[in-house]
Amino acid sequence: MQTAAEHNARPAPLTTAAPLLAVRNIEVVYDNVILVLRGLSLDVPKGAIVALLGANGAGKSTTLKAISGLLKTEDGEVTRGEIVFDGERVDGIDPDKIVRRGIFQVMEGRRIIADMTSLENLRLGAFTRSDKNVDDDIDMVYKYFPRLKERTGLAGYLSGGEQQMLAIGRAMMARPKMILMDEPSMGLSPLLVKEVFGIIKQINRDLGVTILLVEQNARAALSVASHGYIMEQGKVVLDGTADELRNNEDVKEFYLGGAGDQRKSFKNLKSFKRRKRWL
Ligand SMILES: Nc1ncnc2c1ncn2[C@@H]1O[C@H](COP(=O)(O)OP(=O)(O)O)[C@@H](O)[C@H]1O
Ligand SMILES: [Mg+2]
Predict the structure, then answer these.
(1) What is the pTM of this model?
(2) 225 has a pLDDT exceeding 60
(3) CA proximity to 223, closest of 67, 62, 49
(4) How far is the centre of ligand 2, averaged over its atoms, from the C-alpha of 212 (Å)?
């Protein structure tokens, strides 16, 4: 386990294999003035599920958008540092090119297309592909999410859980090397969270797809991730294995207090500041 200071001082590893994704000390600015990420670094090894945790407003979605290139659509920019994917720099590249490199983001709030069917939404996920195996992959997605096959109407009529499944299925259709997931638990019942995270784990194991999982629900995320990063105010403040984080007293108090509900922990910000041992 590492504190923020150790994390920032850490030299590049010399002996271990290069991670599939390496975010190195990035700074992100919106509208040329609003500094949101302030020197953020993280590694995602090939084939792993890594969790990026933090409260609302910490900069988690911004981090994912920096990686997927979608920052550009919001007038945001990586102004310092670098993002290396599969051995090549990807920061500053257009989002469609990043999809072609093998990174697919599942946006927060299940951005499926409401007035298309599930099948049409799944086909959209394969927009970068020219191979003939798209139909086979639709069958594969239905194997993981059988309910999507049964529901033949417009996607807008699917339940929240089904829409989340469709959003994940659509990402699978791109056959990405890596999926970035932004709060897949949002708005789902605890039972559905369990189901969706179980399938995320299964997809990771079966297909070998690497996953960077952004969550406010630290408990759910650490149940499937091997490693996690905790961020606050645009920086990583703590990282470690899922076990280390689950057993850390501060993490328990501020991020695991009651079924993923952080309102209690963050209500008293003053005591939060006083108690933070990692800064
Ligand atoms: N398009 C944007 N323009 C300006 N500021 C933004 C934009 N998107 C996010 N922010 C700001 O960046 C900070 C981090 O936001 P975000 O990355 O969405 O955090 P999280 O996903 O952890 O809740 C917030 O203060 C938010 O107001
Ligand atoms: Mg967010």
Answers:
(1) 0.88
(2) yes
(3) 49
(4) 13
